[in-house]
Design goal:
The structure holds two protein chains of two kinds. Chain A is of the alpha/beta class. Chain A is 31% helix and 20% strand. Chain A starts with 25 loop residues before the first strand and ends in a 23-residue tail after the last helix. The chains are: A alpha/beta, B mainly beta. At the A-B interface, helix 17 of A face strand 2, strand 3, strand 5 and strand 6 of B. The complex binds siroheme, flavin-adenine dinucleotide, iron/sulfur cluster (SF4) and FE2/S2 (inorganic) cluster (FES).
Chain lengths: 843, 108
């Protein structure tokens, strides 16, 4: 894998005609195209620096600038490498910045003001910025390097995309990994590799994990949490030797133990890349020494990011690097020639799913009168502490419960007043104060540390018209770094938008194009006898104007209201409903035949097999809904495919009743308490194809072991013995996971059918467009739903039953219907006539 | 700019208007180019490139009104007035189209 990340299709480097004598701009050269270097260029351009400077960036890595922080989720397989590009090669070209990617600076001639590079080139500068970052420190161990000084194959540092790609590739063939280093990086690497199915041993030289951030007690609790994920942790022990000749085979620990491994990741700290500075005679201690304006001891050479040492501190985090970039851009462009950097207060978060750790400042009291508050619940893996000095928060550690992190970060960054009852810093005493958090944050408190976005910036974006969390994130870049602040960003956007939304009645419309809430809209449709989508627009839309985004919701509503008397209009339907199949990324469709309760027959399977072969279907797949999907069918082939299948549609494409999953139940299972299979089939037979505001997915299981996941379904039915069945509603295990609420326990399959129908009809009539039952049930409240459906508190049960029956009666199999005679001319004509579909080859 | 801007366009008759049901779109090949033609409920005709600039979605399968066309894949909206995307994607190319003796005629 050698693809250039953020590269241009044609090649990796943007060519510019250099040394234009007419160019009066001074030369700004940046060494290092990492997070600090690229951010500096952005900050300079933002201050109009493009007019002042001819900018050249030398970067050792061949890639554009990418978000190094996100290498952890990339290694874990949670993010794709394309999504972590911050500045592509095109970005540099578009902004008139010459990027020389893949070129390493070797020496600076500060007298001649020239940078020498490993490709033999010499780049003159007026101002030079070193942003060379750090490299992974490989502790001395016997056998870790081969004779030529390279790392033994199978041994990796964790710093670059190339190393990450190599490790990802290795996970395919490796089974056991040793990760050296129990800091942030090591823990993230260990969890990522474990997620790929490797058995992972973590070796840490210090007595406890994350010793830079945590005290011994918290470290011990973290160790337990990490071990409970299945990672073996060895603390307080050095690895002394790496085994293997051609490839790593294991490591030997100082106490003589041997750990087998075919992958070794060394995450034992980083060291600043300062050789170039040393060679060039600049002052270097641990890092390149800079003053408060990020200047080295040469007045025209600066250093920022992890390679810089400021007032004795070298930082290993991105936030300080970005503060450096800001100050230096102010200085260089003259926006604020006196700008100064005075050090950063650092906060860190561990990006490991299942283990929440956030720390800031110090972790133990340092003076006699420092206040120290600790809540420790080792059993739950929770350890919370704060250190307060002179009424100011100087440190906090949150382990296992990071709910208070936003509030504490703000107190830490801004030194805001603390509550008298210090315990409120760590737990919410129930006085409804939770909401206050966001409202009370000062406007200038930082929300996104990666991108330096404040609460005020977010509110500004909302005021400026950004109507969604995504739009605010795009506009401010909040949440686009490590992503750990996303939920806080969302809370602030919701808080900031609240006033607006209250004044925006459109939020209550059923569809955006008709200014009416659902009950009002339904009443008007009934009263005025509107039976088609175009009739609704003509009668109820402002100036009778149709609206594309409203059509699908209206079609669904009208079908529910009118049943057989609905007047269909194909343009009112989404493409899926127009051709009764689900559109896919290349413009082909998927075909899912009905398979009630997940039960099939040899004859059905034979037919499916024949159709798959005849139409060269690229993939045949067993779905998560207990049926079989034929994926990649051409639109033109749909009617013939249905005809050859001779099976009804499974409605896998609609906002409608989908499936009833079942388990084998009492007929076969030794634990079965009821005939779940038959009840599932009966439910599916009754409710097949009925449309609804959003998908309706059901399941029936024969006992509480819940093998078909009934507890997490829109309606889930569980046999509990003695002929009794529990009916649960409002569950889901999709984008939202919610256990359903027990609506009632009933005494027969007939009662299950009746109650399910009532619930579905109540949901169909009262849910908002696209509102799944997992939102609907909590919105209405279980008590109210019980009262309406079980006690008939509103006197509507008979109507619900009758309305549902009308929908049941209106059912026809759409495949049998349109298959014979297209509903409209060209219903199944290709929409991409010059493209050969499907684009995916048959498996 | 590109060569196509210098080239003169040619009219292509695509057959009867009734091939396109009211409010829907259908794709055609005109002069070697695939074109999606829409007949709105107000009777007006619009023509555009057949593949969505975002990720190649089949625009003829989209939904439309007098203002915009929605791509079926990710619901990006494109304005009929100038082809611009209201969702920040690249614009779609619009082709002149009219009805002549009951036939759809597109200029490509
Ligand atoms: C085929 C299947 C995956 C598979 O290979 O097994 C599937 C495929 C799709 N799912 Fe699913 N889902 C499938 C089972 C599920 C399940 C499991 C289940 O039904 O038990 C879930 C979680 C249960 C749930 O929904 O509560 C599931 C939760 C989703 C969601 C999230 C819904 C939510 O509100 O949380 C979406 C997105 C949406 O609906 O907007 C989605 C959307 C989709 C779509 C339709 C995306 C789309 O709009 O094009 C996928 C179509 C692929 C295609 O090209 O055909 N699919 N999807 C499964 C078909 C089941 C079936 O036989 O009908
Ligand atoms: C897996 C991982 C996870 C992380 N997670 C977090 C996190 O959650 N939070 C956080 O704050 N920080 C995190 N970090 C640290 C963060 O990535 C760094 O602090 C940040 O990248 C520092 O930026 P920089 O520009 O100083 O260095 P870098 O981003 O390393 O950039 C330096 C660049 O300079 C190039 N270079 C070096 N020498 C030369 C030369 N002589 N000539 C030309 N180019 C040269 C290098 O190739 C590199 O591209 C993480 C790091 C890793 C590796
Ligand atoms: S849910 Fe009960 S009856 Fe069904 S398979 Fe599991 S154990 Fe058997
Ligand atoms: S392909 Fe058209 S919106 Fe994505």
């Amino acid at each position: 894998m050698t693809a250039v990340l953020g590269g241009r299709p044609a090649g990796s480097t943007a060519l510019h005609l250099d040394d234009d004598d007419l160019d009066q701009r001074s030369r700004l050269v940046v060494v290092g195209n990492g997070m600090a270097g690229a951010r500096l260029v952005e900050e300079v351009l933002e201050r109009g620096g493009g007019e002042q400077f001819r900018i050249t960036v030398l970067g050792d890595e061949p890639h554009g600038n990418y978000n190094r922080i996100m290498l952890s989720p990339v290694l874990a397989g949670e993010s794709h490498e394309d999504d972590i590009v911050l500045n592509s090669h095109d970005w540099y070209a578009d902004n008139g910045v010459q990027l020389r990617a893949g070129v390493r600076a070797t020496r600076i001639d500060t007298a001649a003001k020239q940078v020498h590079a490993d490709d033999g080139s010499v780049v003159p500068y007026d101002h030079l910025v070193l942003a060379t970052g750090s490299y992974s420190f490989i502790p001395p161990m016997t056998g870790v390097r081969t004779d030529d000084g390279e790392l033994l194959p199978g041994v990796y540092g964790f710093r670059t995309i190339d190393e990450t790609r190599a490790m990802l590739e290795a996970t395919g063939r490796c089974r056991r990994a040793v990760v050296m280093g129990g800091g942030l990086l090591g823990l993230e690497a260990a969890r990522a590799l474990q997620g790929h199915g490797l058995q992972v041993d973590l070796v840490h030289a210090m007595p406890h994990l994350m010793n830079m951030q945590l005290d011994a007690e918290a470290g011990a609790i973290l160790k337990r949490s990490v071990e409970s994920l299945g990672i073996t942790v060895h603390c307080d022990v050095l690895a002394t030797e790496v085994l293997g000749t051609g490839h790593v085979e294991g490591v030997v620990l100082k106490d003589g133990r041997r750990l087998d491994a075919d992958l070794l990741v060394v995450a034992a700290g980083v060291r600043p890349n300062s050789d170039v500075a040393v060679l060039s005679g600049l002052e270097v201690e641990r890092g390149i020494v800079v003053d408060d304006q990020l200047r080295t001891d040469d007045p025209d050479v600066y250093a920022i990011g992890e390679c810089a040492q400021h007032r004795g501190s070298v930082y290993g985090l991105v936030a300080p690097a970005w503060e450096h970039a800001k100050v230096l851009a102010d200085v260089l462009t003259g926006t604020d020639p006196d700008a100064e950097y005075h050090g950063s207060r650092t906060a860190t978060k561990l990006k490991v799913a299942g283990v929440d750790v956030a720390t800031m400042g110090v972790n133990t009291p340092e003076r006699d009168d420092d206040e120290f508050l600790v809540i420790s619940e080792p059993k739950r893996g929770v350890h919370l502490s704060v250190v307060i000095r002179d009424d100011v928060l100087i440190g906090a550690t949150l382990l296992g419960d990071t709910r208070k992190v936003a509030y504490l970060t703000q107190a830490f960054d801004r030194g805001t007043p603390l509550p008298e009852e210090r315990i409120r810093l760590l737990v919410d005493l129930s006085d409804g104060a939770e909401e206050v958090g966001v409202a009370e944050m000062p406007a200038d408190s930082q929300v996104c540390n990666c991108n330096g976005v404040s609460k005020g910036d977010i509110c500004g974006a909302v005021a400026g018209g950004c109507g969604s969390v995504g739009a605010v994130m795009d506009a401010t870049r909040a949440g686009k770094g490590c992503g750990s602040c996303k939920s806080l960003v969302k809370q602030i956007v919701e808080w900031a938008a609240d006033g607006d939304l209250a004044e925006d009645p459109a939020a209550s419309y059923y569809v955006p194009g008709i200014p009416m809430a659902k009950p009002e809209l339904m009443a008007a449709i009934r009263e005025q006898d509107l039976r088609s989508v175009s009739a609704v627009f003509a009668a109820l839309a402002p100036s009778g104007k149709e609206d594309a985004k409203s059509k699908m919701g209206l079609t669904s509503l009208l079908k529910m209201l009118w049943g057989v008397d609905f007047v269909p209009e194909k343009d009112g339907e989404f493409i899926n409903d127009r051709v009764h199949a689900n559109i896919q990324r290349d413009g082909t469709f998927s075909v899912v035949p009905q398979m009630k309760g997940g039960v099939t027959t040899p004859a059905q399977l034979r037919r499916i097999a024949e159709v798959a072969e005849k139409y060269e279907v690229p993939m045949v797949k067993v779905t998560g809904g207990q049926r079989i999907d034929l994926l990649g069918v051409r639109k033109e082939d749909l009617p013939a495919v249905w005809d050859d299948l001779g099976m009804p549609s499974g409605y896998a494409y609609g906002k409608s009743f989908r499936t009833v999953k079942t388990c084998v139940g009492s007929d076969f299972c030794r634990f079965g308490l009821g005939d779940s299979t038959q009840l599932g089939i009966d439910l599916e037979t009754r409710f097949q194809g009925i449309e609804s505001p959003a998908k309706m997915k059901l399941a029936v299981v024969g006992c509480p072991r819940n093998c078909a996941e009934a507890y997490v379904k829109d309606v889930g039915v569980v046999a509990v013995g003695n002929g009794k069945w529990e009916v649960h509603v409002g569950g889901a295990a999709g984008a939202t996971v919610r256990k359903g609420d027990l609506l009632a326990t009933v005494g027969s399959p007939q009662e299950v059918l009746r109650l399910t129908g009532r619930f579905l009809q109540y949901y169909r009539e009262n849910a908002n467009w696209l509102e799944r039952s997992y939102d609907f049930v909590p919105r209405i409240g279980l008590e109210r739903i019980r009262a309406v459906l079980l006690e008939d508190s509103e006197g509507i049960v008979a109507e619900l039953d009758a309305a549902l029956q009308r929908s049941v009666d209106a059912y026809t199999d759409p495949w049998g219907q349109d298959g014979k005679e297209p509903a409209t001319p060209g219903q199944f004509r290709t929409s991409l006539p010059l493209i050969d579909l499907p684009k995916v080859p048959a498996r | 700019m590109s060569l196509t801007d210098l080239r003169t366009t040619t009219e292509h008759a695509l057959g009867p208007v009734e091939q396109i049901p009211p409010g829907e779109g259908r794709a055609f090949v005109a002069g070697g180019v695939q074109v999606a033609v829409f007949r709105l409920r107000d009777g007006s005709l619009h023509a555009t490139q057949a593949a969505c600039p975002h990720a190649g979605g089949p625009l003829a399968d989209g939904q439309t009104d007098v203002d915009v066309l929605l791509c079926p894949l990710h619901l990006y909206a494109y304005r009929w007035s100038d082809g611009a995307s209201t969702s920040g994607a690249a614009p779609i190319r619009l082709y002149p189209v009219h009805e002549s003796d009951g036939e759809v005629v597109v200029e490509v």
